[in-house]
Amino acid sequence: MRVLHMDFGREMRGGQRQVYYLVRGLAKEGVVTPLAACVNRSPLHDALDAAGIPVIALNDPKEWNPCVFFRMAWANRKTPCSIIHTHDARAASLGALLHKSVMRGAKLAHTRRTILPMRQGWSRKKYLEADAVACVSHGVAAAMRDSGMPEEKLLVIPSAIDPERYTPKVERNDGRFVFGMVGALTPEKGHSLFLEALGLLHSRQALPPWEARFAGSGPLLHELLKKGEELGILDHLSFLGWQESSCVLPQCDVLVVPSIEREASSGAVREGWVVGLPVVCSDLPGNTELVKDGENGLVFANLSAESLAGQLLRILHEPETAARLAAGGRHSLEPFLVGAMVRSYTELYARLLA
Question: Predicted confidence band at 271 (pLDDT cuts at 50, 70, 90)?
């Protein structure tokens, strides 16, 4: 069977990396023949091309662009596909348009990565057009169901992680404790809350020599720098800009995931696990689907800097607890490996064509 994968992201963010994992894995497995459509010369385009995957390169991938529509229609005439699989919102729009017109014989599947409910109008209709919607977590599936998606079209297929991209935690032996956080500098990620918790511990002189490293870029940088200065901890903060988490996390001693909203399913948690770090996260459903408090991480009450500070103290003062949590994280990885995701999507495709 031939499956057309569509993603119009211009950067290699979490969703695009999942598309790369899936398409590459399907090609290696050999049951499914993948064809990809993505932004010309984008990181995803280049990665798939380097992996030997056939790619339709789109110069202006806007869902309402007639040139893009006819390019995709022509490509399907040349290489017919039995399934259209879209991976982001714009691709979902174009996929639904193709499905309703020139690719009526194909099945349509969407992957949904956001926990937000469906909106009204076309934003809703394009998902209802699908034969199946794969959600990356049960929370995402619940949001889709509650906003009108029929239950029989929904299934949960978690995002995957490739351990080969990561190296284990490094023993630095420099006398410092390094807190790590990975994520765009945007309000929902909870950087400000994390700084408040660090400020509490610093003011109580509860910390050994320490540093907090933030991998990510975004609009909050200057606001966070100002907050760090107000809390008296600016000298302990390192804002690294966009960095591959695989390069940053091995140098850390704990991964903090303080998201305050809109966490569909934390990829950072899985990254912490694979590197061998204890993970501390907020109790959003997208986190607690993964992290079981005291087993493979510690959970704090969302929006509570006091609660976060308390869990960080446990990691600092109970090295045996930190080691046990890191081991629990490693043991939790099996359902989230690339092979498991590839098998789940292969089964979905076979079911759609049965």
Answer: very high
Quickly tell me which residue has 């509860």 as its tokens.
206
pLDDT tens-place string over residues 150-189 = 999 999 999 999 999 999 999 999 999 999 999 999 999 9
CB 197 within 8 A of CB 309: yes
Clarify whether residues 185 and 63 are in a common domain: no
- Are 316 and 177 spatial neighbours (Cβ–Cβ below 8 Å)? yes
Question: Could you tell me if 58 and 187 lie in one domain?
Answer: no
- Asked if 72 and 37 touch (Cβ cutoff 8 Å), the reply is yes
Backbone torsion region of residue 134, taken as left when φ is above 0, otherwise alpha when ψ lies between -120 and 50, otherwise beta: beta
Which residues have CB under 8 Å from 249's CB, separation 6+? 166, 169, 180, 182, 255, 271, 272, 275, 277
What are 102's two structure tokens? 């020139």
Q: Which residues contact 154 (CB under 8 A, 6 or more apart)?
A: 132, 133, 135, 141, 144, 145
Distance between CA 210 and CA 237 in Å, rounded?
9
CATH assignment at residue 75 = 3.40.50.2000
Report yes or no: 47 and 28 within 8 Å, Cβ to Cβ. no
Please work out, in degrees rounded to the nearest 5, the angle formed at the alpha carbon of residue 201 by the alpha carbons of 189 and 313.
85
Indicate the pLDDT class of residue 63, thresholds 50, 70 and 90: low
Residue partners of 292: CB distance under 8 A and separation at least 6: 328
* Spatial strand order in the sheet of 55-58: 55-58, 33-39, 2-6, 83-86, 107-112, 132-135, 154-156
Determine contact, residues 54/35, Cβ cutoff 8 Å: yes
Domain that holds residue 234: 164-335
Q: pTM for this structure? A: 0.91
Rounded to whole angstroms, the Cα distance separating 183 from 281 reads 13
What ranges make up the beta strands (E) of the chain? 2-6, 33-39, 55-58, 83-86, 107-112, 132-135, 154-156, 177-182, 210-215, 237-241, 254-257, 279-282, 298-300
Q: From the CA atom positions of the chain, what is the Rg in Å? A: 21
Q: Which residues does 231 contact at the CB level (< 8 Å), separation at least 6? A: 195, 196, 198, 199, 202, 203
Q: Quick one: 322 and 205 in the same domain?
A: yes
